[in-house]
Amino acid sequence: MRLPPRIKVLEALSAIADGRIKLLGDKEAEVVSSDGSRTYKVYVDLGRRAAYSDDNGTIYRGYVGYPIISFLMARGVLPVDERLGQALKGIPWRKLNEQYKKYDAVMELVKAQLKERGIPGEEVDRYIDLVMAHLRKLGLRLEKPAERH
Prior knowledge:
globular; 49% helix; UCP014422
């Protein structure tokens, strides 16, 4: 799987801070979208480096989608920045992504908001770099879990 757009790290951390992730076991979780309209199913088997989520980024673009990243954060596999998470609470990601259509524009907007909340852009970038480095090392591959009957 490809690495995600950088903004997905912040979306994932925001899902954790907002309490939108529900762990369903060692390898599964559900993540609710920022507007509450969708619930994504997440499956990660670290032993096999297999990951899957039914979000658009994972399915249609082949990158590690934010629901997978938030699962890995909740499991302690990826670092969580509590202070940054608190500052990201309540951001309407879906609305912003649909409104601006470009992740760069949304990132600028979110960084401006974070700066107002006392978190400088360099700190945000350092955290994203850290998470991306961890993701790169994990080397996850897209694999749909076997259906249960």
